[in-house]
Specification:
The protein is α/β, with parallel strands linked by helices and 205 residues long. The protein is 41% helix and 20% strand. The chain is built from 6 helices and 7 strands. The protein is globular.
Length: 205
Amino acid sequence: MSTLMFIQASPRGSRSHSIALANAFIKSYTNIHPETKVIIRNVFDMKLPILDEKMLTGKYNIMHGRDFTDEERGLWSEVEKIIEDFKTADKYVFAIPMWNFSLPYRLKHFMDVVAQPTYTFSVGPDGYKGLINAKAFIAYSRGGDYSDDSPYNFQASYMNHYLSFIGIKDVKSVAVQPTLAGGPRGRDKAKTTAINKALELAKVF
């Protein structure tokens, strides 16, 4: 049985264009693959560990085989729980709105927790190697109309780089845009177009 993790990076629920797009993709995909287990994680609802000085001191003590305290072990176990949960999936769907030309801060926090050496990537003589063998679909939403190579779009470039870094190299995406600049009529047309594209990608995901 395949496990799909749906990572929502919007706090807007049913008002979120990126979540609506991702929902359409997942509904189509699970109709084709009804045995799929879908796990939903909204980063705004998750209790994410704080990567502060105390946490990072414990991290390096543990990883480098130095003495560490019970408190440090306990703190680091919270990071490990997030990573272990993330690694239960073999496919990922992200719903990501553009905030200030990039990612919502809670998604960046989640990604910083997940990207840890020996857990999701390794470092060797040949450089970095991602340890997550999976594929991903990303549903983006943007208030303006920004192509992936736009100098204002740090959203897609960062996600592609990050996912490739941890080993997820098969990444497809669709964007609903513009959700604001084109007015309600332009938004609705863009949403319909994006959903149709997502439905086609769901057939081969």
